[in-house]
């Protein structure tokens, strides 16, 4: 089954930064909108950012100005640079197809914990 693989999470203090990476199979990378999602304890999974094959990006309001999604065409990865992290950013982060692109099997995600 097709699966995207997330990495890069960790424990950081408020105000810190993390860079998440999503390895995307080549056939999916070149044809799909890819999004980063997160699921906090007790909450539904939400999409926080997405990027089209042409590089057009979208962000949920709560991360605008702090998170940047990008594509690395050489490595077939979609990255999420997260700056000025807040405790409310604590969640498991996943990547998958987004918007009108199909969803694939969900991976294990990568845990992000923001705590002092």
Explain how this protein is built.
- Helix content is 3%, strand content 44%.
- It has one helix at 26-29; strands at 5-7, 10-12, 18-23, 34-39, 46-51, 57-59, 67-72, 77-82, 91-97, 110-114.
- The strands form two sheets. It has a six-stranded mixed beta sheet with strand order 2-10-9-4-5-6, with no helix packed on it. Strands 1-3-8-7 form a four-stranded antiparallel beta sheet, with no helix packed on it.
- The chain is globular and about 40 Å long.
What is the strand content? Answer: 35-45%
Structural class: mainly beta
Counting H and I runs of at least 4 residues, what is the number of helices?
A: 1
Mean pLDDT: 96
Distance between the termini: 39 Å
- Rg from alpha-carbon coordinates: 13 Å
- Characterize the biggest β-sheet: 6 strands, mixed
The parts where pLDDT drops under 50 for at least 5 residues are: none
Net shape: globular
Q: Strand order across the biggest sheet?
A: 2-10-9-4-5-6
> What is the tally of beta strands?
10
Element pattern in H and E:
EEEHEEEEEEE
Question: Helical amount among residues, as a percent range?
Answer: under 10%
Layout of strands and helices, then pairs:
Blueprint: E1 5-7, E2 10-12, E3 18-23, H1 26-29, E4 34-39, E5 46-51, E6 57-59, E7 67-72, E8 77-82, E9 91-97, E10 110-114
Parallel strand pairs: 2-10
Antiparallel strand pairs: 1-3, 3-8, 4-5, 4-9, 5-6, 7-8, 9-10
Q: How is this structure best summarized?
A:
The chain has 1 helix and 10 strands.
Key features of this structure:
1 helix; 116 residues; 6-stranded mixed β-sheet; 4-stranded antiparallel β-sheet; mainly beta
